[in-house]
Design brief:
Elements lengths: L2 H20 L8 H14 L21 E3 L9 E2 L2 H7 L5 E7 L2 E8 L2 E7 L5 E3 L2 H4 L14 E9 L2 H7 L6 H9 L12 E9 L7 H10 L7 E4 L2 H18 L4 E8 L2 H6 L2 E2 L2 E2 L2 E5 L4 E13 L5 E12 L2 E7 L3 H6 L7 E7 L3 E7 L11
Parallel strand pairs: 2-13
Antiparallel strand pairs: 1-6, 3-9, 3-10, 4-5, 4-7, 7-8, 10-13, 11-12, 14-15, 14-17, 15-16, 17-18
Helix pairs in contact: 1-2
């Protein structure tokens, strides 16, 4: 076995992989030439780690290669209340699925083989984390389709896996995001799961959303539970059941339900609103909120020179995250909420992300009333 020959082959194969997976310039090798080099390597070293990997390697300076999505990964408009849902309602049958709380990804298949996995990124460009994805549960490596197929899904950490393998970490969502993008020591990716929700053979979904989820399931993917609803009232019943009991009973985190017009053509005919599809909406669950004591209001100067009031309060844990301060945005919020040090406030994480002072629970009491 010639070590130098093997190194030369690996350099050529990795250079070809970089141009293929990152779409940087013309391909340095045709598929036939690439296969010939792999055959040569296989003869020299049949157990070489190269044959266990797919996708681009991490960049030498850190970070994963950036790759432009062939089909952009957009986001959805949101409904927060029953009135929002009624305003959105399209007057057609909708398919309801879980709004999974993890990190979105896109899997690319060529002639049935998984060749690339990208994070959502900004929707136009993601990061090639194929090597980590291949370790995950639910990463189906071979599907029966020919041609090009994209499968969209969410990388999540099941609650059961989180409790057993990620003790001491803040919450399943942050664990999924951080673990999925580890540059080294990626072994714990095997405790993450990909839950698929979009199936795009040749870039277009099946005729109905129900058929789409069913096709994913029959192909071997983990899929969310799905329901049908013909009216806002029917959808509201399903939503209320999740808020009451079903959400907590799941083995993965969700922060709402996704409603898609079931018929693909009708969904597409509705067009876009704010560059987001009108034919789908995320019906978000109520914000996680807890009462606490406001200790101080201080003023923060931003890079632009803008001065913003910030609330400091006793620490609360919301969605597994410790929170002890929140921007009050403007002086109008301070005066409108009648805030003062020592008052009880209700604090939330809007969209399960941004800390927010929702209310003064001692409204009507003045600071002179507080000892």
């Amino acid at each position: 076995m010639s070590t130098q020959q093997i190194q030369d082959l690996i350099q050529k194969l990795e250079a070809a992989c970089r141009t293929y997976y990152q779409h940087t310039g013309e391909l340095v090798l045709t598929d036939t030439a690439y296969d010939a080099l792999e055959d040569e390597l296989r003869k020299l070293d049949p157990n070489h780690p190269h044959f266990q990997t797919v996708g681009a390697a991490p960049l030498p300076g850190g970070g994963w290669p950036k790759v432009r999505h062939s089909i952009p990964m957009g986001s959805l408009n949101k409904a927060q209340t029953s009135d929002d849902l009624k305003s959105w309602w399209p007057g057609k049958l909708v398919c309801i699925t879980h709004k999974l709380d993890g990190i979105s990804c896109s899997l690319k298949y060529l002639d049935g083989k998984l060749v690339q996995a990208l994070t959502r990124g900004d929707g136009d460009t993601g990061e090639d984390i194929t090597r980590n994805v291949l370790l995950m549960q639910g990463a189906v490596r071979v599907i029966p389709n020919k041609g090009t197929v994209y499968v969209r899904g969410e990388i999540i950490c099941r609650k059961s896996d989180f409790a057993q393998h990620f003790q001491g970490e803040s919450n399943p969502r942050n664990t999924a995001a951080g673990t999925a993008k580890r540059q080294s020591d990626a072994d714990k990716c095997k405790y993450l799961t990909i839950v698929a929700y979009q199936y795009l053979p040749d870039g277009r979904p099946p005729a109905t959303k129900v058929e789409e989820i069913y096709a994913l399931s029959m192909t071997g993917f983990v899929v969310p539970t799905y329901y049908g609803a013909s009216t806002p009232a029917e959808a509201q019943v399903i939503y209320d059941e999740y808020v009451a009991t079903k959400r907590d009973a799941l083995d993965w985190e969700i922060d709402g339900l996704v409603l898609d017009v079931n018929d693909r053509d009708a969904r597409e005919a509705l067009g876009d609103l704010n560059s987001r599809p009108r034919g789908a909406v995320a019906f978000k669950f109520p914000h996680d909120s807890k009462p606490t004591i406001l200790r101080d209001i201080h003023w923060q100067v931003g890079k632009s020179g803008r001065i913003t009031p910030v609330a400091d309060f006793d620490e609360v844990v919301l969605g597994g995250v410790k929170v002890e301060r929140a921007s009050l945005h403007t002086m109008r919020n301070v005066t409108g909420l009648k805030l003062f040090p020592g008052c009880r406030v209700l604090v939330s994480r809007r969209n399960d992300c941004i800390p927010y002072v929702e209310a003064n629970l001692d409204d009507g009491i003045t600071d002179s009333d507080v000892e």
